[in-house]
């Protein structure tokens, strides 16, 4: 039996086997789930904190060097590139560190956003909340199950698609 490999031209212009091309597409698909990039003010504040922290240790850098380091931490080539990426995108409904309120399984809460990932369709987010006060997620009187940290997937409106048996969203965040 003779096996033949199909040669294809990849997006980067290089020739490769069909299998290599498929693997490249898989890696691109994995990259579509991205961590959210803070707004420009948040990036600048990070650079300022970094500069002060390094200065306290006796390492002096300029503000522009701190901006460049922050850009590299997020995987960007330089400050101008991250500035363009952060400035040319639609406003995110939530941000890391934001204080939010809403309900989880029917229980009211206030919380801090400690994890936030935009999913590949751009319309949904995976969010992790650190609740100020633990909530009881069981409706039975005979026992309780308290939650202080909550994970969920929400739309841009702050409501999860997952529903309880009575049709109520698992997670609702007031935007």
Automatic annotation (TrEMBL):
Residues in Glyoxalase-related protein domain copies: 34-174
Protein name: Glyoxalase-related protein domain-containing protein
Species, as recorded: Maricaulis virginensis
Lineage of origin: Bacteria, Pseudomonadati, Pseudomonadota, Alphaproteobacteria, Maricaulales
């Amino acid at each position: 039996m003779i096996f033949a490999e199909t040669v294809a031209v990849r997006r980067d212009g290089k020739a490769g086997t069909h299998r290599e091309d498929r693997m490249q597409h898989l890696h691109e698909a994995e990259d579509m789930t991205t961590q959210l990039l803070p707004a420009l003010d948040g990036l600048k504040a990070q650079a300022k904190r970094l500069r002060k922290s390094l200065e306290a240790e006796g390492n002096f850098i300029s503000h522009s060097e701190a901006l460049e380091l922050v850009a590299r931490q997020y995987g960007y080539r330089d400050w101008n590139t991250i500035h363009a990426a952060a400035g040319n995108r639609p406003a995110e409904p939530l941000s890391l560190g934001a204080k939010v309120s809403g309900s989880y399984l029917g229980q009211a809460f206030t919380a801090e956003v400690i994890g936030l990932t935009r999913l590949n369709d751009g319309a949904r987010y995976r969010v992790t909340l650190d609740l100020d006060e633990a909530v009881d997620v069981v409706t039975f009187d005979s026992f309780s199950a308290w939650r202080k940290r909550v994970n969920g997937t929400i739309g841009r409106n702050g409501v999860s698609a997952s529903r309880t048996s009575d049709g109520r969203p698992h997670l609702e965040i007031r935007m």
